[in-house]
From TrEMBL:
UniProt-listed InterPro entries: Calcineurin-like_PHP (IPR004843), Metallo-depent_PP-like (IPR029052)
UniProt GO molecular function: hydrolase activity
Naturally occurring in which organism (per UniProt): Bradyrhizobium betae
Domain Calcineurin-like phosphoesterase: 7-239
Stated name of the protein: Metallophosphoesterase
Amino acid sequence: MIRINPVSDLHLDIASNELDGMPQVDADVTVVAGDAAAPGTLALRRVRELYPDRDRPLIYVAGNHDHYSHHDKHRPELKTTWEKQLRMMPEVAHELGITLLSDSSAEIGDVLFIGATLWTDFMVRPPFLMFGDAVRDATRRMNDYRMIKTGAGRSRDMLRPGQTIDAHKASVAYLEKALAERPAGQAAVVVTHHAPSPRSLLRWPAAADLDQCYASDLEARLMTGETAAELWLHGHVHANRDYVAGDTRVVANPRGYPDPRGPGGRENPAFDPCLVVDVEPRPAPGWRT
């Protein structure tokens, strides 16, 4: 058995949302499922400050905010591009002793951790919203497609939904392969930023505005059957989740933003920095317990 302390969406770069530290937790591994700060190179350094114990494995998966670029003449390091963060985050993670999972895997103890940002396929959406309209709506209204720059990083070099859909397809293919190729009996934990099931959405079972940017439906492909992971950790949806989809337990423990309705409040009051999830392999088919 392995004990995991999962958190996500710390958003430490937001005004009035800083943290001086995190409580001590009796866990074997800490998992941060993205969006600790922007850009990701800063996020990794802030996460290491919050979790300074290098004897405990620390896993990080980039979220959408990890690629955001900000223009601040006093802080030029905040200006970045998608490609630059994909290149630099592994270097910073290695320097800090953080296991960064980006369409990659790591074994900790007897457990295989498999991670990806994941993005989405734009297929989870209200029934009246056609695919093309969902893409156009996201382009107009989702900050990802304004705040994330590509290429030369000019104001017009904005990330496009087609790029994130391609990244989603590559991540799903990697996750499927890694789950299928792990040794029989080995427990697997998938860590993504975006949600793997519409059950994680705020208004599920109804599909709501911009849901196409928050979740995909991977239950049949990746979460059911002998190769399904024991546990799937995610972020992005700023509400706690704990449910079973197919054969996989899904858990989200996001901190989120301060509550704009009043001082001291939290967007997600259910966030628990001390949450611990235990993982052990399922019995193989035919076993009796």
